[in-house]
Amino acid sequence: EVSNLDAQTSHTVAELPGLVNISSFVPSFDDFASITKASLASGFTFNAFLPQTLEGTSIVDVDSLEEAIDVASHDAYTDFAIYLAGSEQNSQEASDAARNAGALFLPFNAYANSKVSAISAHFALWPENKPIITDARTTDLASVLLLASLHSRSIHITGVSSKEDLDLITMAKDKQLSVTCDVSVFSLFLSQEDYPELSFLPTAADQRALWENLAGIDCFSIGVLPSMVAKALGLEATPGVGVQDALPLLLTAVKDGRLSVQSIIDHFHDAPVRIFNLPKQDAKIEVTLDRRTTVSSIFKNKKAFGSINRVSVHDETVCLDGKLVVSEATGKNEVDTSRARFGSVV
Amino acid sequence: EVSNLDAQTSHTVAELPGLVNISSFVPSFDDFASITKASLASGFTFNAFLPQTLEGTSIVDVDSLEEAIDVASHDAYTDFAIYLAGSEQNSQEASDAARNAGALFLPFNAYANSKVSAISAHFALWPENKPIITDARTTDLASVLLLASLHSRSIHITGVSSKEDLDLITMAKDKQLSVTCDVSVFSLFLSQEDYPELSFLPTAADQRALWENLAGIDCFSIGVLPSMVAKALGLEATPGVGVQDALPLLLTAVKDGRLSVQSIIDHFHDAPVRIFNLPKQDAKIEVTLDRRTTVSSIFKNKKAFGSINRVSVHDETVCLDGKLVVSEATGKNEVDTSRARFGSVV
Ligand SMILES: [Zn+2]
Ligand SMILES: [Zn+2]
Ligand SMILES: [Zn+2]
Ligand SMILES: [Zn+2]
Ligand SMILES: [Zn+2]
Ligand SMILES: [Zn+2]
Ligand SMILES: [Zn+2]
Ligand SMILES: [Zn+2]
Questions:
Q1: Cβ <8 Å between B150 and A171
Q2: If DSSP codes are grouped into helix, strand and coil, which group holds residue B61?
Q3: Which helix (H) or strand (E) holds A94?
Q4: Residues with beta carbon < 5 A to ion ligand 7?
Q5: Which of A8-12, B55-59, B292-296 has the highest mean pLDDT?
Q6: Is A9 exposed, middle or buried, given 0-12, 13-18 or 19+ CB atoms closer than 10 A?
Q7: Rounded to whole angstroms, what are the CA distances from B239 to B25, B27, B149?
Q8: A12 near A3, Cβ under 8 Å?
Q9: If chain A, 346 residues long, is cut into consecutive pieces of 10 residues, what is the mean pLDDT of each piece?
Q10: Of the bound ligands, which one is closest to the alpha carbon of residue B123?
């Protein structure tokens, strides 16, 4: 897949499948177009949207999910799925809406009391063939892993950013618990060493542990972390902040010998497709590995490499040298309501 | 075991083995004598002491454990064991002191951060043949159950007082997790219906759930709850508050048809001996089931039945009609340092 096509200038070109963003954050429902355009230009041909906007948790039942799907169907430039948020009260409403949802998202900060009962109720009612994803940390993470195990459910932990949490997940995997996880690309490239005031970033030691245990991390993600960083630094939160930086950051790590192109494909396409039961992307991105590129000022003039030459979907070029060449929002809700969990999908 | 010996007045007499207090609270090390005297008179011939006094956690390493064992060896009127407290930092010191400890007690309120790492460290180092006991609740309970399971350790949950926690433990047992639990006798007979201001008491609904699921509760206990109630009500905390009330409360439930004498034996002798690997008590208590007795004013003039006629240890009478007839503190530290966990003990 990596070839020396561009022989004259010795540039190395690689081709990857369209990447899958499993935790795409829309600040508001007005942003589906801008986020998905930025996604396409950045190599992401699928967005699974988190159920929370800047105004809080918004997708919690049949009506709010239908509304979100409708807006996104009009506006999105990539195919998409939309997650439903599981609250302390809505286990029944959530399961009623499951058919059109991409997954159940359990936002742990939103629970005041009775987390155990609330999570148990969701595990009991949410259909077996639909994934469950959560941002639980530390004790809450241990708790949700136990509940998943007691209910014989698989669970995906998103945005892991500490050695302690990763160790716990690794131990659970060793004991055959059905758990998968992702780490935000921002957590791999920003730490409290860069911004001591941002306590939600991993410590340098935590970040080192993430890199050393990439084999135990199933997926890469983007998530809300880039928006949190931008906000904390007083930067204008452009739509899709973080999306543009993800692939250049990872390709720079490839150039630095810390990562392989295959690992990017594994973590940003193959595992997401498998874990979230999504269609394999009929889409390609062509990158030049060693060509200088730029990343956000958040990374303080980091020297970055890896430019995206072309993105094509269904064999049609949608983006060329950074410029979008599609003008219609043709993204579809890609939640197959009949597909079985972990079923084979082409 | 229940016989109509006292035929003339139709009193029903029952004989029970000496009871085992698995969570005996000493306000200070000066109280071993008074507590164990009150214990003997109340039918408890063995005390396993919690590692916390009124001044906080005090037994955390070899030195503090040796000191406590020395004081208790001089002062105690019952055989005893002493638990060691597992803190956020002392996993190594705790395992060094394990040989002479009755069990490792994990006091969950004492953990600030990093609960998962701290508990994991204890599970990794504490010897396999020694029990681990914890007062974890709700999410912390779920978390500690996961960690016990991941480390293939058994765990005992003390002082369960809510339906939610009991349901979780029951579910864990159903999934073959090695977990046992106890409920304080006070939680069975006092609720927030009696004292709405005492939020640490079970609600009436929680208390109902405890009674309905006695089969899923391994042991009865006393614990710190009686001292907490006495303190909150502004009563003088006499040494052994709660100890005197335990058997009369349970025997009253026998008279009311809510409990059997065999269930008291199961929960206050057989299961504690099995779970905490203690010697079967070579001790007997003779009670008259239907004779009026008194319980603490905490229970608001509750009509109580079941008087203790005689307590004997090693075939010698130690208490007759409420009066202690021993004058020497002959209690021994009964932690057999060679005995295997769950080994057969006579
Ligand atoms: Zn290809
Ligand atoms: Zn419409
Ligand atoms: Zn398509
Ligand atoms: Zn279930
Ligand atoms: Zn007998
Ligand atoms: Zn001495
Ligand atoms: Zn003895
Ligand atoms: Zn272990």
A1: yes
A2: coil
A3: helix A91-97
A4: B 79
A5: B292-296
A6: exposed
A7: 9, 8, 37
A8: yes
A9: 58 94 95 96 97 89 96 97 96 97 92 85 96 95 97 97 97 97 98 97 98 96 96 87 96 96 98 95 96 94 95 96 90 73 40
A10: 8
ipTM: 0.85
How confident is the model at residue A341, as a pLDDT?
44
Q: What percent of chain B has pLDDT over 70?
A: 94
C-alpha radius of gyration, chain A, whole number: 19
Q: What does the pLDDT look like over A187-245, one tens digit per residue?
A: 999 999 999 999 999 999 999 999 999 999 999 999 999 999 999 999 987 878 899 99
Strands A2-6 and B283-293: unpaired
Cα distances (Å, whole numbers) of residue B134 to A319, A346, B33, B48: 59, 50, 26, 14
CB contact under 8 A, B139 and A139: yes
Q: Residue A190 in contact with residue A298, Cβ under 8 Å?
A: yes
Q: Best mutation site among A88, A114, A116 for testing chain B: the one with the most B CBs within 10 Å? A: A116
d(CA A214, CA B61) in angstroms, rounded, equals 38
How many CB pairs below 8 A link A and B? 68
Q: Residue A222: what residue type? A: I
Q: In Å, what is the CA distance from B284 to each residue of A330, B4, B161, B316?
A: 82, 18, 30, 10
- Nearest one of A312, A283, A230 to A25, comparing CA atoms: A230
Angle formed at CA B81 by CA B77 and CA B83, multiple of 5 degrees: 135
A1: closest CA of chain B, how far (Å): 40
Residues in chain A closer than 8 A to B150 (CB atoms): 168, 171-172, 175
Q: A-side interface with B, Cβ within 8 Å?
A: 113-117, 120, 138-147, 149-150, 164-165, 167-168, 171-172, 175
Interface residue ranges in chain B relative to chain A, Cβ cutoff 8 Å: 113-117, 120, 138-147, 149-150, 164, 167-168, 171-172, 175
Distances (CA, A) of A101 to A1, A77, A300, B65: 34, 19, 38, 56
Average pLDDT over residues B240-263: 95
Residues of B in contact with A117 (CB under 8 A): 164
What global pTM score does this model have? 0.90
Written as six digits, the tokens of A158 are 């998103």
Give the CA angle between residues B144, B145, B148 to the nearest 5°: 85
**Token pair belonging to A57:** 């948790």
Predicted pLDDT at A245: 96
* Among the ranges given (A334-343, B157-166, B291-300, B318-327), the one the predictor scored with the smallest mean pLDDT: A334-343
Strand A219-221, strand B19-24: pairing: unpaired
